[in-house]
Amino acid sequence: MNAIKRLFSWLRRLLFQPSAKIGLGLLVIIGFAGGVWFWAGFNAGLEATNSEEFCLSCHTMKDNMLPELQKTVHWQNRTGVRAECQDCHVPHKFTDKVARKMQASREVLSHVMGDIGTREKFLAHRGVLAQREWARFKANNSKECRNCHDYDSMDFSKMRVTSQMIMRSAAERDASCVDCHKGIAHELPVLEGMHNPAFDTLVSEANHTKINVGETYYNVVPQPLYLDAEKTKQVGTIEVAAPAKVIAHENGMTQIELDMWRKNKGYGRVWYTHFGLNIVDAIIDKELSRDESLITVKESKEDPMTGLEWQKVSGQFWVEDGLLMNSLETAWDIAGQTYEDNCSVCHRQPDPAGHDANQWPGLWAGMVGFTNLDDDTGGLVLKYLQLNSSDFAAGTHAPGSPENAIQTARP
């Protein structure tokens, strides 16, 4: 302790009382040497934390990420060029690198606190971690990838024909690599059932919507339908963007009336707002779907396209407060942007009006498997596509017509 005190005393005299014994030139030299020593130490420490050995010293990385990486071409290939952890996950520019290190402190804290300390915990958090990293790649246009894979250096003639078409299109748009190549070095996380933060905006707006009896509102998130305000029995579900007329409002519950169509076939569980169009808006439990005390049949008519009989039906149900809005504009903003972001990265996305409402469910089922959308978001996008389909663009179900009880998506 005495030696430390003497050192600090000498430094204090050196810095604050230099003129008596030490010249200004010597002071500058000492300061410069100290700065070089500090910078060298800082840089050495920074480089050490960038090494693959440092990354794999964490058992979370070694046990979970390394085995996945070892199965890919980034680990072993005919050229012998290996991409290490820092090549993809640490920016090469100094200022960006320091910023990334500061962000990584959150991940280090999570590891220290044991949030991802086991395989089960890691898998539970993997979706969030992956989406955060994808967002970073998207924001910097996959800069780390393009340090090795640059469009200008690609020889498209050596690619397969199908790859040429996709890569040439991506080069023309200067697309971010991560748009198409999620899971290129690690397994894709399971995102089914994960919460989409965009729905928080919808729920927040719905919570601030004033509910008036007698007016029609639109459901923004799929939710249960109940037989009474006490929620003693669930009778089905109401889907996103489904219209509902408010009948009563009390004690945190809202009574709504659904006035829709169903196919008079089987149980008739699925209800549609538009006659002849498979745009699902509600699903009733099969044991109640034919209950005449609960559901009223108003009209029957045949669909000339299929020969099936459709029935106009209505029923009164209860839903919880907070998920009804008087406009779907925010929902369509989310759906439209999601469709553009997820379906234009590998190819030109189809024009919603290029297909009719009955074609879109099958087309969307084939497309959504190539995305990482959760079920609620996928359902919202499908409804957006159906309500912007050729059926509505052509004016067949134009707003205000007897067939249309819903606010259609914007053209």
Any descriptors?
single chain, 411 residues, alpha+beta, six-stranded antiparallel sheet, 41% helix, elongated
Task: Give the helices and strands, then pairings.
Layout: H1 2-16, H2 24-50, H3 52-56, H4 59-69, H5 85-89, H6 94-112, H7 119-139, H8 143-146, H9 161-173, H10 198-207, E1 216-219, E2 223-226, E3 234-238, E4 243-250, E5 253-263, E6 270-272, E7 280-284, E8 295-302, E9 309-320, E10 324-325, H11 329-343, H12 360-368, H13 375-386, H14 390-393
Antiparallel strand pairs: 1-4, 1-10, 2-3, 3-7, 4-5, 5-9, 6-7, 8-9
Helix pairs in contact: 11-13, 12-13
Describe the protein.
The chain is α+β, with helices and mostly antiparallel strands and 411 residues long. Among the domains are: 53-179, no CATH class; 210-323, no CATH class. The chain is built from 14 helices and ten strands. It has helices at 2-16, 24-50, 52-56, 59-69, 85-89, 94-112, 119-139, 143-146, 161-173, 198-207, 329-343, 360-368, 375-386, 390-393, and strands spanning 216-219, 223-226, 234-238, 243-250, 253-263, 270-272, 280-284, 295-302, 309-320, 324-325. The chain has a six-stranded antiparallel β-sheet. It has a four-stranded antiparallel β-sheet with strand order 2-3-7-6, with no helix packed on it. Strand 8 and strand 9 form a beta hairpin. The longest helix is centred in the first third of the chain and has 27 residues, at 24-50. The chain is elongated and about 100 Å long. Mean pLDDT is 82; it is low at 398-411.
